[in-house]
Amino acid sequence: MFCPQCGSSEKEMWEGLCIDCFLKDFNLISIAENIEVTTCAHCASNLKEGKWREMGIPEEEIIYRALEDHIKIDEISEDVEIDLEILQIKGSSAQCIIKVDGNVLGKSIHQEYHSSVKLKKTVCPDCSKFIAGYYEAVIQLRATNRPLTPEEIRSADETINDVLERLWEKNRLAYLAQRSEMKEGIDYYIGSQKSAKKVISALREVLGGTVKESPRLMGQDKSTGKGLYRTWMSLRLPEFEIGDFVIYENKTCRVVAIDSRKISVMDLSQLTRLSILWKEYDNIETLKKSEDIQKTTVTSKSPQEIQILHPETFQPIDLEIKPRMKDLEIGDEVSVIELNNEIYIITE
Ligand SMILES: [Zn+2]
Ligand SMILES: [Zn+2]
């Protein structure tokens, strides 16, 4: 056997040529000279096999991944090591060099390839929805018989931003399309229903309240034929806030904490704490706000009773002494609240 290219008959043969002649034209890898990647100018995701993925990665990383995706290593190459480098980026095209080391048929080879990666910038369908102001859900934040407090508004805004920011990394429809503040409350327009549900449960975690949902059919999706729904979700905060006074099962109480599961109150007659679940919410009646607390003076004290003056009529009132009132002395100023014609000393 001799090599048809060089005529040598001394060398090992491979695919009809001597090894040296074979290796002259051998490529360790193959890669296209021109690669095009469609990316979203808004979220930096890129289109791969018909799907938008890998959002939020830096441009250089998109280029490196595009190169990697287009490299094919020849079957007989062994111990291949590939080093990718961007030589320069001009406009939307990156000139890249691919340095390859590997072993073929017992010989080690170094090769260099050039490839240009062009980033074709467009806007992905989800980001086009964002730009067009599309939304699937409206969260209506309201309070019962009162306006929202600035503190409630601040903490709602903050919670919504946090949740959406976290969700956006995986779901580009997790965005706030619009926020409108009105006299009766705030409406938050959210890109997707899924993210709106997560937002509203996070809001309940922070503010409590009761949720109602009402989906409305808005039309039909022309491409899928499915119904297009938009959901209105209302989160209604109670009339009472922490520190306010309520009546529940004939017990006069002060609200001490509110969370997504329950309302914690202090029973003012027993000075014991109890938890009221949200499903019992309709049985709670707001009596007075914490601003209604008044000041008065202790006028006398015995081991069983404490006497104070009514804050408005200045009539003396004798009250049974309770554990937390022991430190009160004659002449001390105390906070009191009148609820259903009874006066309660507020000890904390
Ligand atoms: Zn040869
Ligand atoms: Zn996008």
Defining traits:
SH3 type barrels; single chain; 47% strand; alpha+beta; 17% helix; 4 domains; five-stranded antiparallel beta sheet; 5 helices; 348 residues; binds zinc ion
The number of helical elements comes to 5
Overall, the morphology is: elongated
Average of the residue pLDDT scores:
91
Helix content: 10-25%
**Rg, nearest Å:** 37 Å
- Which structural category fits the helices and strands? alpha+beta
User: What strand line-up does the widest sheet have?
Assistant: 12-13-11-15-14
The unreliable regions are none
> How many structural domains can be distinguished in the coordinates?
4
What about the largest sheet?
A: 5 strands, mixed
The helix/strand series, from N terminus to C terminus, equals EEHEEEEHEEEEHEHEEHEEEEEEEEEEEE
Distance between the amino and carboxyl termini = 104 Å
Structure description:
The chain has 348 residues and is an alpha+beta fold. It has four domains: 13-125, no CATH class; 133-237, no CATH class; 245-290, SH3 type barrels (Roll); 293-346, OB fold (Dihydrolipoamide Acetyltransferase, E2P), CATH 2.40.50. 17% of the residues lie in helices and 47% in strands. The chain is built from five helices and 25 strands. The strands form seven sheets. The protein has a five-stranded mixed β-sheet, with helices on one face. A five-stranded antiparallel β-sheet has the order 19-18-17-16-20, with no helix packed on it. Strands 23-22-21-24-25 form a five-stranded antiparallel β-sheet, with no helix packed on it. β14 and β15 (227-237) form a beta hairpin. α4 crosses α5. The longest helix has 19 residues, at 150-168. The mean pLDDT is 91. The structure holds zinc ion (2 copies). The site of one zinc ion has 8 residues, from β2 and α1. One zinc ion binds at residues 3, 5-6, 8, 17-18, 20-21.
